[in-house]
Every structure is written in C-alpha cells, then in structure tokens.
Amino acid sequence: MGFKRPVEIPYPTVWHRFQAKGLGEDGQLEWYTIQDLPEERFEDAVRHLSEHFARDEQMNQAKGLDRDECAMKEVVQLWNAMLPERLSVVCFREGSDEIVGVNVLGVASKFDKEEPKFKSEIFQTIFDTIGYISQQTNVYERYGVDQYLNAMGLSVDPVYRGRGIATELLRARVSLCKAMGIKLTSTCFTGPGSQGAARKVGFEENFSITYAELAKVDARFEYPGLQEKCCKYMSLKID
C-alpha cells in the first residue's frame, strides 16, 4: 500500500516563509510562502510546469519534450496522478495568488510495483535515464530506509528566477518531511542550477555521471549539447 498523508496534518499547510526580492525595480525584499498545493490550483500548477519545466529543464530541452504531443500528454498525466497525494508544494509571493514556483513531490518505496511504461519514446527515455541513475545510487540500502521523498519536476517562473526560489522550495522539504515522518529526500538533479540549490540546502552527492558517459550506457541516453555536463543524484537526511 502506498504512502498516505497523515489525516492529522492540516491541508493545505504552510511549510516555509522567506524573504527575497520582489518585482519592483528598487529590489525591495518581500515575503514569500511555500505551502501545500491546494486542489483548486492543480490545473494552474500543471499549466505552469507545462510552460516552464517541460521546456526549460535541460534533459527535456535537449530531447524536445515540450514539442512532442504524446510526451506532453503523458507527463501531464503523471503530474495529475501525483498531485492528489497532497505532497506537492507551491510558492506564492505574499499578497498575490500568482504561482512563483512548483515542486511536484511523491514518496518512493522499496516495495513499489513495476515502473510505468509510456508510449512516448522521448518521455520513456528521460524516465529511464533518471531510473538508471537512481539505481546506481542504491538509496534504500545506502541510508537504511524503506521510503523517501522524491520529485518529478521543480519549476520557477522566469520572472522570479535569480531570487533563490528553487533553493527555498528544496528547503521546504525539511519541515514537510518531519511532519510526515519521512527520514530522507532524494532527487536526480539534472543541471548545475538545481545542483547548486540542493548543495545550499545540505543535500549530499550520492552519484554523478556526465551526459557523455550516460550515452555510453544506453544509446537512448544521448542528450545533445549536454555531453560535458553532469547529472547528479543527491540526498538530504531529515533529523
């Protein structure tokens, strides 16, 4: 049986507040909140991810995921399947209901059944690439856990980039995991930006491989333009 959010935890809950630059030209600091993504904003969050994450994340960009109708249909289906688990989080600028950033979250378990299969060759390849890197990490044995908080997309609106929003979205996982009784969060970070954000929060590197090396593992794992960059699996223990 899969993970279920404890009924005693209010939904939605605010997990983190922080200050960052607002949208004004004066650079004045404003307050932001990171909270559970409310059900009434699921469609907005999927739209945000489709416009930004599907296009800008470097694996997706290299494979042209956002230009493949079948791939987009299937990744949207996956997000829509995960959001009702009530673990995903959204960032708002206080006083505004505009979505600043989203992180789609779920719990991976060593008792999970077989991984899903997709019709889209592009999305299946990206999914299999992340699966391969995860297998090399061996999270369950490395950390002695049966489950961990995983992610399937972190996106920040381009208007708000450069303010450390991604770092704060990752930081919010700490209080969320503590409340849920989850002892570990682990994610495949595919580019230097997200890897740097993870390091700032305290994630440690478990496994690293260049995209050129990935292409040697499986010809499908070739990502044009990324050969010299690294993909890293990183984890954060929750005390």
UniProtKB/TrEMBL annotation:
Listed InterPro entries: Acyl_CoA_acyltransferase, GNAT_dom
PANTHER family: ARYLALKYLAMINE N-ACETYLTRANSFERASE-LIKE 7, ISOFORM A (PTHR20905:SF32), N-ACETYLTRANSFERASE-RELATED (PTHR20905)
Pfam family, one: Acetyltransf_1
Domain N-acetyltransferase: 153-224
Highest taxon above the source species: Eukaryota
Protein name, UniProt field: N-acetyltransferase domain-containing protein
PROSITE patterns assigned to the protein according to its UniProt record, in alphabetical order: GNAT
UniProt organism field: Aedes albopictus
